[in-house]
Design brief:
The chain has 91 residues and is an all-alpha fold. The protein has one domain (21-88). It is 56% helix and 0% strand. The chain is built from three helices and no strands. It has helices at residues 4-19, 26-42, 61-78. α2 (26-42) packs across α3 (61-78). It is globular and about 35 Å long.
């Protein structure tokens, strides 16, 4: 069995990605706002928790990049909704 300090080091390295989290991107802020607005309008609930500020998307740079891309792509069909969503109006 390895010495206890090695086990502690492995545990610390495994936890490191969580410490190196990323911030929610502007595209995902807008995407979540639009999904919530559309949900309210259509009286439904969409699971977008992973894209919210404390969601799984922001655990590290690689997943954050993928989530940002997904949010950016997800905004495209939302732009075509009628009536237009308030979350898409830029001041």
């Amino acid at each position: 069995m390895p010495p206890p300090w090695i086990l502690a080091l492995v545990a610390a390295v495994a936890a490191l990605p969580a410490c190196l989290g990323a911030e929610q991107t502007a595209a995902c802020q807008q995407f979540v706002a639009c999904v919530r607005e559309l949900d309210g309008r259509d009286r439904q609930t969409t699971d977008a928790i992973r894209f919210e500020p404390d969601g799984d998307c922001w655990g590290g740079p690689t997943i954050a990049e993928l989530c940002d891309h997904a949010c950016t792509r997800g905004l495209e069909p939302l732009r075509a909704t009628a009536p237009p969503l308030a979350c898409l109006v830029t001041p």
